[in-house]
Write a structure and sequence with these properties.
The complex is a heterodimer of chains A (about 300) and B (about 325). Chain A has about 300 residues and is mostly helical. Chain A contains twelve helices and no strands. Chain B is α/β, with parallel strands linked by helices and about 325 residues long. Chain B folds into two domains: about 220 residues, P-loop containing nucleotide triphosphate hydrolases (Rossmann fold, 3-Layer(aba) Sandwich); about 80 residues, no CATH class. Helix content of chain B is about 30%, strand content about 20%. An eight-stranded mixed sheet of chain B has the order 6-7-8-3-9-10-12-11, with helices on both faces. The longest helix of chain B is centred in the middle third of the chain and has 18 residues. Chain B is globular and about 65 Å long. Classes of the chains: A mainly alpha (about 300), B alpha/beta (about 325). At the A-B interface, α8 and α9 of A face α2, α3 and α6 of B.
Chain lengths: ~300, ~325
């Protein structure tokens, strides 16, 4: 859009800024819109739980255990008489917390190492890549079990394990896309203008791979949620009484034939969160594609 | 006594590590460039022109082995640590690249990119650098520079982008400008304008320029002296007029005959030089042009011929100049 055109549009509708290209395309993109809605539902649930839940999530009322859905308990109660809706809402909190911190760990270390590998080349790159291959060889569950053996099970253990598990993925994605940028002529031009590799990394490489990293982070977030659920299910993650979707699945397991719905609710919650983030990631990939973003 | 050269290159050699083994991309390149002088580098693809330019800029990959000496104002550049080289690049030596479509970062405004070297090498404030960038963009003939300084590269045409890269390269008024095929990617109509612009700016600031091209016409019109490269070596060098009037090397002669000509009879086939460029990883022991030369002898293949001065510092790397420079040259 040319500058004079923007100016005239703004003059016609004062105060109301025209919807910019990205958001207009985003709203029209079906999977992005659906993914965004689902992700916002999960985020909203976690935020809501901070100020309000139908029942206190930690209150045990064995007398009213395993109730079917009713006006008081919308989705019924679990084996300890806790309200399912409240548990799901509070569970969203640990899901998001683990996801954010684990992906944060992965992003910080993975992107940093990947950028160093691409900038330094040679044995530095070789060392970083081989180390990440080594880490990659251990699944999150295995590294969590090893960590839990040393540090004891818990949320910190599972966050650390999932975070470490995320690093090599980010290293690979970053290094691969950064290498492609390093080979571009504008980087050569920047070097010819006297810039050192640190400045080139910050000013030229990072901005150009940011969209790839955002998409990757969204997908890694979904993987982190799955990993958290798996670890909690195995009893290595979030510890009782703190509610977590994975723990709820674990609790429901023994009652699968009496109250199958107990397993369905947290399962559905996990599915919604993972599906939402995957759709969001796919949508972002389309939307941030430089060939389309040119319309800016 | 003559003025000391600004840039002095002695016996420059570059060995690149390729997948096919070490390749001698450049061998024994020597020249001196005085302040305000322009030098043309001509030759076909893969003859070592760009590698020479990158070697001067210190931008070769780390695996490349550089020998010989490059002196800027008497200071040795070969083996200079990267941090020190960074202070020179964009400041005292600048480069214009072949592809204006890719030489600008799509994520930054053009004003930012032109102001960058100023902020980096001179002590100006951001506001001053911006003003200076606008002045530079104006000087390189970008229409409406003050209004378009915050636009992104994709909003400009190829010719305009090349003007922007020129503004970037000249921001700090370097002593030496290396232009690596600056017009190859542009329309013929724009080519002339850009070359005129570069020539004007070079004269205006008293810069020295190394112009790289495979276009003999571009070289003929824009530089004082020229060097013809083949297979990583300089096969002929001298004042542009001298080389064009008395071409000494069979390769230069072949290159000249291969030009298309106006007024040639319809259906006339272009003359070509038979054979192909030798593999840099597998260069012959003797003259690199031996396999394609019409007047090759056994001794041509024995060792790389020395440069013969054929008068007026016009050098030809050929042992058969007596034949090649006889009236009409070879095979005319």
């Amino acid at each position: 859009m040319s500058a004079p055109l923007t100016a005239s549009t703004a003059a016609i509708t004062p105060g109301a800024r025209p919807v910019t290209g990205f958001w207009r395309r985003a709203l029209r993109h079906r999977s992005f819109a659906l993914g965004a809605v689902l992700s916002l539902v999960v985020l909203g649930a976690a935020l809501l739980s901070l100020v309000w839940t139908p029942w206190p999530a930690y209150d045990i009322d064995v007398a009213s255990k395993l109730r079917p859905p009713s006006a008081a308990h919308w989705l019924g109660t679990d084996v300890l008489g806790r309200d399912i809706v409240s548990l799901l809402l509070v569970g969203a909190r640990s899901t998001i917390l683990v996801g954010v911190i684990a992906v944060g760990i992965g992003l910080t270390f993975g992107v940093g190492l990947g950028l160093i590998a691409a900038a330094r080349k040679g044995w530095t790159e070789e060392l970083i890549m081989r180390m990440s291959d080594f880490t990659f060889a251990f699944p999150a569950v295995l590294s969590a079990i090893m960590l839990a053996a040393v540090a004891g099970p818990g949320m910190v253990t599972s966050i650390t394990a999932i975070g470490i598990f995320q690093i090599p993925t980010f290293v690979r994605v970053t290094r691969g896309s950064a290498n492609a940028i390093w080979a571009r002529e504008f980087v050569l031009a920047a070097r010819a203008a006297g810039k050192g590799s640190f400045r080139i990394t910050i000013e030229h490489v990072l901005p150009n791979i940011l969209s790839i990293l955002i998409v990757q982070a969204t997908i890694q977030f979904a993987l982190a949620i799955l990993a958290e659920a798996a670890l909690s299910y195995l009893g290595l993650g979030t510890q009782p009484p703190q509610p977590s979707w994975g723990r709820m699945l674990n609790d429901a397991q023994t009652l699968l034939f009496q109250s199958p719905m107990l397993a369905v609710y947290p399962g559905a919650a996990i599915a919604i969160a993972v599906l939402g983030l995957n759709l969001l990631g796919d949508g972002l990939r389309d939307l941030l594609d430089p060939r389309l973003a040119r319309e800016r | 006594m003559r003025e000391a050269p600004l840039l002095e290159v002695k016996d420059l050699g570059v060995t690149l590590n390729t997948s096919r083994g070490p390749a001698q991309a450049v061998r024994g390149v020597s020249f001196a460039l005085r302040r305000g002088e322009t030098l043309g580098l001509v030759g076909e693809s893969g003859c070592g022109k760009s590698v020479t330019a990158l070697a001067l800029m210190g931008l070769l990959p780390e695996s490349a082995v550089i020998s010989g000496s490059v002196r800027l104002d008497g200071a040795e550049l070969v083996g200079l640590p990267d941090a020190a080289y960074c202070k020179l690049r964009g400041n005292r030596i600048s480069m214009i690249f072949q592809e204006p479509m890719t030489a600008l970062n799509p994520m930054h405004t053009i004003g930012h990119q032109v102001a960058e070297p100023l902020l980096r090498h001179t002590g100006v404030s951001a506001a001053q650098a911006r003003q200076e960038a606008i002045a530079l963009l104006d000087r390189v003939g970008l229409p409406d520079a003050a209004k378009r300084v915050d636009a992104y590269p994709h909003q400009f045409s190829g010719g305009q982008r090349q003007r922007i890269t020129i503004a970037m390269a000249l921001a700090c008024q370097p002593d030496v400008l290396i232009a690596d095929e600056p017009t190859t990617a542009l329309d013929v109509t724009i080519q002339g304008q850009i070359l005129d612009l570069i020539a004007g700016l070079v004269a205006e600031h008293g810069m020295s320029m190394i112009l790289i091209s495979h276009d003999l016409g571009v070289i003929a019109e824009n530089v004082d002296r020229m060097m013809v490269m083949y297979g990583g070596t300089v096969v002929e060098s001298g004042a542009t007029d001298a080389v064009f009037t008395r071409m000494g090397h069979p390769y230069t002669q072949g290159l000249f005959r291969a030009r298309p000509r106006l007024g040639a009879r319809k259906g006339t086939r272009l003359k070509t030089i038979a054979g192909t460029v030798p593999e840099l990883a597998d260069l012959p022991a003797g003259c690199t042009f031996a396999d394609r030369c019409a007047i090759v002898e056994a001794r041509c293949r024995a060792a790389l011929p020395a440069v013969v001065d054929v008068g007026g510092s016009h050098g030809v790397r050929c042992i058969r100049t007596d034949v090649s420079m006889a009236a009409g040259g070879v095979g005319a």
